[in-house]
Amino acid sequence: MSGWSRAALEALDRDDPLARFRAGFQLREGLLYLDGNSLGALPQRTMSRLEQTVRGEWGEGLITSWLGAEWITAPRRVGDKIAALLGAAPGEVIVADSTSVNLFKAITAALSLRPERGVILSEAGNFPTDVYMMQGIAAFSGGRVRAETVAPEAVLARLDSDVAVLVLTQVHYKSGAVRDMAAVTRRAHEAGALVVWDLSHSAGALPVDLNGADADFAVGCGYKFLNGGPGAPAYIFVAQRHQAAAMPVLSGWMGHAEPFAFEDDYRPAAGIERFLCGTPSVLAMTALECGIDLMAEADMAAIRAKSLALGRVFMDLMDEQCAGLGFTLVSPRDDAQRGSQIAYAHPHGYGIMQALKERGLIGDFRAPDVLRFGLTPLYLRYADMLDAVSLIREVCEARAWDDPRWKVRAAVT
């Protein structure tokens, strides 16, 4: 028995130092939203801030707002705020484009620093866009560069004199398993390789220390734990020591040393701004900044502590209430090795998740058989874990997955 009664969980909620943040999000009563690792909830402040941007800055200020409302400096301003969450220095993070595009920038910049090497390495089962970008760069290189994936446990052993860039996700998107950033980076550097870290499932979910780990490059999205909204701009980190030498292949006008000089030839900006490409999306950047500002008000150590505690409660309750129902834990039980999500495999995983959504529990499904439950400490409660697991048991006992509607998977799972 787990010993997690409703009374015990509600007592934890009363003593929760992060409890006040829940009121800062728009969440309808009765909804169990365990998908913040895919799309964060809407901060209440975002709506009024966007209205101000649309009605005042755009509607009244028009083009003068590029300077008057500081639109033009938003990528750097918001980037510096994200840097504070990632253990990076001001001027090492810029907000721009998507995670995929920033991966392209980071990988090609790293390749430019290791011209004598030709392998981009990652683990099999990494998030697809990371590997697709590697493959696209390799195909475009005309044979000079090769993309290679190996089993996760074989990555460090594969590091050799031909590896230019190692591309890894700090928190695995499917299992939630955490890589030791400092140890992996150190091993890569010993082999002469550079590392590009994908922080999409770690930024805002657990402490990140890029400079403490001597990281080279990193990318991440703004719409998960940072609560920046659907399709929020992403960000790229480039260690200051690399900025002068790393040449961006995507040499857009906003990355020019003087964009409004309108010169025919490209001259890269001196610092992190050289990793900009085109005009920033002001409305999306505005929403992202609201999410970042809200995150900055919380203590990251408290976020991590609650995240791990929520995970332990969830797993304990699953062990107690759903034993024998076909679930296999995919996420690590060890706190030090687990991010801010819990994942289970089940032969009927897709149908189970659809049935749960109909009952007010939103998680997500990842092929072939994994159900993911995101644990977002700023708005989830301990008692929500009990309600969630009770619904999971109810769906399984009723075999609610066995519904003709779930035979064909939706475009978004």
UniProtKB/TrEMBL annotation:
<dbReference type="GO" id="GO:0043420">
    <property type="term" value="P:anthranilate metabolic process"/>
</dbReference>
<keyword id="KW-0378">Hydrolase</keyword>
<comment type="pathway">
    <text>Cofactor biosynthesis; NAD(+) biosynthesis; quinolinate from L-kynurenine: step 2/3.</text>
</comment>
<dbReference type="GO" id="GO:0030429">
    <property type="term" value="F:kynureninase activity"/>
</dbReference>
<dbReference type="Pfam" id="PF22580">
    <property type="entry name" value="KYNU_C"/>
</dbReference>
<dbReference type="GO" id="GO:0019805">
    <property type="term" value="P:quinolinate biosynthetic process"/>
</dbReference>
<feature type="binding site">
    <location>
        <position position="99"/>
    </location>
    <ligand>
        <name>pyridoxal 5'-phosphate</name>
    </ligand>
</feature>
<comment type="function">
    <text>Catalyzes the cleavage of L-kynurenine (L-Kyn) and L-3-hydroxykynurenine (L-3OHKyn) into anthranilic acid (AA) and 3-hydroxyanthranilic acid (3-OHAA), respectively.</text>
</comment>
<dbReference type="GO" id="GO:0019441">
    <property type="term" value="P:L-tryptophan catabolic process to kynurenine"/>
</dbReference>
<feature type="binding site">
    <location>
        <position position="279"/>
    </location>
    <ligand>
        <name>pyridoxal 5'-phosphate</name>
    </ligand>
</feature>
<comment type="similarity">
    <text>Belongs to the kynureninase family.</text>
</comment>
<feature type="binding site">
    <location>
        <begin position="127"/>
        <end position="130"/>
    </location>
    <ligand>
        <name>pyridoxal 5'-phosphate</name>
    </ligand>
</feature>
<dbReference type="GO" id="GO:0030170">
    <property type="term" value="F:pyridoxal phosphate binding"/>
</dbReference>
<dbReference type="GO" id="GO:0097053">
    <property type="term" value="P:L-kynurenine catabolic process"/>
</dbReference>
<protein>
    <recommendedName>
        <fullName>Kynureninase</fullName>
        <ecNumber>3.7.1.3</ecNumber>
    </recommendedName>
</protein>
<comment type="subunit">
    <text>Homodimer.</text>
</comment>
<dbReference type="GO" id="GO:0009435">
    <property type="term" value="P:NAD+ biosynthetic process"/>
</dbReference>
<comment type="pathway">
    <text>Amino-acid degradation; L-kynurenine degradation; L-alanine and anthranilate from L-kynurenine: step 1/1.</text>
</comment>
<keyword id="KW-0662">Pyridine nucleotide biosynthesis</keyword>
<feature type="binding site">
    <location>
        <position position="198"/>
    </location>
    <ligand>
        <name>pyridoxal 5'-phosphate</name>
    </ligand>
</feature>
<dbReference type="GO" id="GO:0005737">
    <property type="term" value="C:cytoplasm"/>
</dbReference>
<dbReference type="InterPro" id="IPR015424">
    <property type="entry name" value="PyrdxlP-dep_Trfase"/>
</dbReference>
<feature type="binding site">
    <location>
        <position position="100"/>
    </location>
    <ligand>
        <name>pyridoxal 5'-phosphate</name>
    </ligand>
</feature>
<dbReference type="InterPro" id="IPR015421">
    <property type="entry name" value="PyrdxlP-dep_Trfase_major"/>
</dbReference>
<feature type="binding site">
    <location>
        <position position="169"/>
    </location>
    <ligand>
        <name>pyridoxal 5'-phosphate</name>
    </ligand>
</feature>
<feature type="modified residue" description="N6-(pyridoxal phosphate)lysine">
    <location>
        <position position="224"/>
    </location>
</feature>
<feature type="binding site">
    <location>
        <position position="201"/>
    </location>
    <ligand>
        <name>pyridoxal 5'-phosphate</name>
    </ligand>
</feature>
<dbReference type="InterPro" id="IPR010111">
    <property type="entry name" value="Kynureninase"/>
</dbReference>
<feature type="binding site">
    <location>
        <position position="223"/>
    </location>
    <ligand>
        <name>pyridoxal 5'-phosphate</name>
    </ligand>
</feature>
<keyword id="KW-0663">Pyridoxal phosphate</keyword>
<dbReference type="InterPro" id="IPR015422">
    <property type="entry name" value="PyrdxlP-dep_Trfase_small"/>
</dbReference>
<feature type="binding site">
    <location>
        <position position="253"/>
    </location>
    <ligand>
        <name>pyridoxal 5'-phosphate</name>
    </ligand>
</feature>
